[in-house]
Amino acid sequence: MTNKFIRVLELLGEQRYRECYGMHYDSFSIGDVYEHWPGRTITESDCYWQTHLHANPHPLHFDNDYAAQTEFGRVVVSSLVTLPLIHSMTVAATSVNAIANLGWEKIRLSAPVYVGDTLYAETEVLDKRLSDSRPGQGVVTVCTRGFKSGKELVMTFERSFLIAQMATEKGC
After folding, report:
1. Element (H, E) at 161
2. Looking at residue 74, which CATH number applies to its domain?
3. Which end of the chain offers a freer environment for a tag, N or C, measured as fewer CB atoms within 10 Å?
């Protein structure tokens, strides 16, 4: 990626700036890969609270005694916790300026995630096209890969979002 900035500063006044994130349609190039930083370590609270928030009743995600008797030998973090955590790592760089998220496809889980694992993500631009019905806007499709420490792949998904071609007069 050359001469493209994911984070920029908008001058608001003398020595006053607003930090801006993300890109616009014209900033994306098919084949570009963005490594998202920092990673995110899964805590016991993340696992238990989010599992209950999503109303997932499977004891593998919150019952230590039950989980110890499974092939995993311990509590496994629910994919309904892992997916939003990995997705959230990507938003600042890819879709914070999106007009609409159009959906996720091809969500694949390839390895279990446990409390204490640190997740990392990278996103590859797969496709982009200008909208036929919304002038000045386009659809960008990306593939995000989530990894545990050591680069073990734990999840992949594709996502499309509608985004303006360039920054508006209102700011970044």
Report:
1. strand 152-164
2. 3.10.129.10
3. N
